Amino acid sequence: MSDGRLERWVRPEIRALSAYHVPDASGLIKLDAMENPWPLPGDLRQTIAARLAEVPVNRYPDPQATALGQAIRALWQIPDDVGMLFGNGSDELIQLIAMVLGGPGRTLLSVEPGFVMYRMIATFTQSRYVGVDLRPDFSLDTEAVLAAIRLHEPAVCFLACPNNPTGNLFDADALRAIVEASPGYVVIDEAYTAFTDADHLDWINRHENVLVMRTLSKVGLAGLRLGMLFGRPELIEEINKVRLPYNINVLTQTAARLAVEQFAVLETQTRQLRASRDTMLDALAALPGVEPFPSQANFVLVRVPDAPAWFAGLKAGGILVKNLHGAHPLLAHCLRLTVGAPEENDTLLSALEALARG
Ligand SMILES: *Cc1c(COP(=O)(O)O)cnc(C)c1O
């Protein structure tokens, strides 16, 4: 029983939220969260296990994660004059950005449907959130975004490229127009960089207000929680001030560095996933009543005749996907299908085919 304290003291916008829901996937083929379906190869696992055994867990981790930083810079050829910051997942980086640039009286802007964390974290940080609708084909409504930028003068505009949950890239000219028109900063969220040739790292040099965010989550290391933010060093330094000192634990620092030093192993897997995605797009397009949308990510958004029923049907068949029906009007009867291992994709396609043929 509450004595009224909770109602009095928990901020109303927090009480109005529901906690981020992660469905139970036990016993199911898990195609709901854009994870890499494969474990790390055995020899890399052995190497990591041996090194983790030596890690001094009685000591605080390196607050700057220096060795990991060097490995990441080497991997993506990040010049020393580009600032870099690590987060406990890119979710934490979004939070740090919002703490520094958002807040009461400030606006964070993104597109809808888009990544739900931008809106959630805007609420957590008492920032105003403006979501500009995409067009029905999920392309940017550039005029609408530019008008919203003029009207609201957002401190930050978040754009995921490719976008989640739609899977498409945004037009580069539209993106550039938004960057140039923004009085604040633009975060280009490249969570799916492994699955596309599009790359915006060099935009940091060309535009003073661009930040690029990446993560190891979608390439096979979701459990480690490591996100990276790149941008002009002056701004990265400001954001670094609100980061809690030891946000990247020592086990993650060690394991991620070893995995990054052998990134080719993960790239073999992501290449396979890209090929499977393209195969899956063709197979989905051939199913009656199923409309797949183009994807540059490791998932495919599809519109089906009855998404809640198909979601339930897939789940009854042992497959968990993401039902987006009800999340946004543009996502009516849409399901998001993560690309899995070939045998998982085959099981999914057979189940969808059975549903499509009624
Ligand atoms: C998955 C995802 C992230 C979150 O990544 P973490 O590093 O696991 O926190 C960020 N942005 C987008 C667009 C995503 O889809």
SSE arrangement:
Layout: H1 5-9, H2 12-15, E1 29-30, H3 42-54, H4 66-76, E2 83-87, H5 90-101, E3 107-112, H6 116-124, E4 128-133, H7 142-152, E5 156-160, H8 172-181, E6 185-189, H9 203-206, E7 210-215, E8 227-231, H10 233-240, H11 250-261, H12 263-285, E9 291-292, E10 299-303, H13 307-316, E11 319-320, E12 322-323, E13 334-338, H14 342-356
Parallel strand pairs: 1-11, 3-4, 3-5, 5-6, 6-7
Antiparallel strand pairs: 2-8, 7-8, 9-10, 10-13, 12-13
Helix pairs in contact: 3-11, 4-11, 5-6, 7-8, 12-14
Bound molecules: pyridoxal-5'-phosphate.
For the structure shown, list the relevant keywords.
358 residues, globular, binds pyridoxal-5'-phosphate, 41% helix, 4-stranded antiparallel beta sheet, alpha/beta, 7-stranded mixed beta sheet
